[in-house]
């Protein structure tokens, strides 16, 4: 599959991540948990909460071959959308789009599960049921514990891609997103040789519409939306997604502990990639206030830098901090 770029299309290519996309794609784990080993600890934790949810509807949102209707993963409007805002947009999906989306994902009417066969006779009511199910799933299983850690990984991915673009250029950036991708100078080629299901995809011309590149925790390779006529989106595996199952690293260098104290040494080890105070507190199981005090000391010592994105401040190690950890 080819993504064809005109002269100005690289200038409108951008990155974004989507909490709604990650919530929907996480349902792939319910179909095939062995395919996503890094999420097994999370799956064990949420199992009691899943029993109170609309499992029949949630499971039906993903096909047996793990396709998802395009309308459930809309192209992010900006780099860091909020789940509630994306869900409001999903609630406004036209009924005919809901029907077409499920038929495209399931490919044949016979493949539709009973809950969708019944639901598609009244797509407006079906949309209400599925958005309510997603909202409950988000707040029960994702928002408090899982999303802060995933958001940290996605932010780190975006920061890494920015460094690659600055140091190596757009060609290295695009071809480095996934081994399925290669850049020829005017075309981005997506190999479909290892796809498990036949796709309806054809070549895509960016044609001034802007290509949005979206990292995800739930893809084993780069993939496009089902409908190539939609505004172009390319999902790719997020860098560092395997760290989701890791426990916070121990501090093995006793010299670093003696110098900084164990809490600050551990924070410095964690901040090889950008993270916010809240994200670090979730990982360490402590209060944000405790983390904030240590971050302020490390920042004042020149071991950390910080950048602001809206109301969120993210910290990462400086070169001095990297040298000290080594």
TrEMBL record:
Coiled coil: none annotated. InterPro entries: ArsR-like_HTH (IPR011991), HTH_ArsR_DNA-bd_dom (IPR001845), Metal_resp_trans_reg (IPR051011), WH-like_DNA-bd_sf (IPR036388), WH_DNA-bd_sf (IPR036390). GO terms for molecular function: DNA binding; DNA-binding transcription factor activity. Keywords: DNA-binding, Transcription, Transcription regulation. Residues 255-326 form the HTH arsR-type domain. This is Helix-turn-helix domain-containing protein. It comes from Streptomyces adustus.
């Amino acid at each position: 599959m080819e993504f064809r770029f005109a002269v100005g299309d690289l200038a409108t290519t951008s990155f974004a991540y989507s909490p709604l996309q990650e919530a929907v794609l996480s349902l792939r784990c319910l179909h095939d948990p062995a395919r996503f080993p890094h999420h097994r600890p999370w799956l064990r934790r949420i199992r009691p909460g899943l029993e109170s949810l609309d499992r029949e509807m949630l499971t039906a949102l993903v096909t047996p071959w793990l396709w998802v209707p395009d309308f459930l993963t809309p192209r992010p409007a900006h780099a860091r959308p909020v789940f509630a805002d994306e869900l409001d947009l999903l609630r406004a999906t036209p009924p005919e789009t809901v029907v077409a989306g499920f038929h495209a994902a399931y490919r044949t009417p016979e493949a539709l599960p009973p809950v969708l066969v019944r639901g598609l006779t009244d797509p407006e009511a079906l949309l209400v049921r599925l958005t309510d199910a997603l909202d409950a799933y988000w707040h029960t299983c994702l928002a408090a514990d899982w999303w802060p850690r995933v958001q940290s990984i996605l932010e780190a991915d975006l920061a890494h891609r920015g460094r690659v673009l600055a140091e190596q250029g757009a060609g290295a950036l695009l071809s480095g997103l996934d081994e399925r991708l290669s850049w020829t100078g005017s075309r981005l080629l997506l190999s479909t040789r290892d796809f498990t299901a036949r796709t309806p995809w054809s070549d895509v011309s960016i044609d001034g519409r802007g290509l949005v590149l979206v990292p995800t925790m739930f893809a084993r390779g780069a993939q496009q939306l089902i409908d190539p006529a939609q505004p172009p989106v390319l999902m790719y595996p997020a860098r560092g997604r395997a760290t989701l199952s890791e426990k916070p690293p121990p501090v093995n260098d006793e010299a670093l502990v003696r110098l900084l104290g164990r809490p600050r040494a551990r924070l410095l080890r964690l901040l090889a990639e950008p993270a916010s105070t809240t994200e670090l507190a979730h990982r360490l199981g402590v209060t944000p206030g405790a983390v904030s005090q240590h971050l302020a000391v490390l920042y004042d010592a020149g071991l950390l830098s910080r950048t602001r994105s809206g109301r969120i401040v993210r910290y990462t190690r400086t070169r001095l901090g990297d040298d000290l950890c080594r």
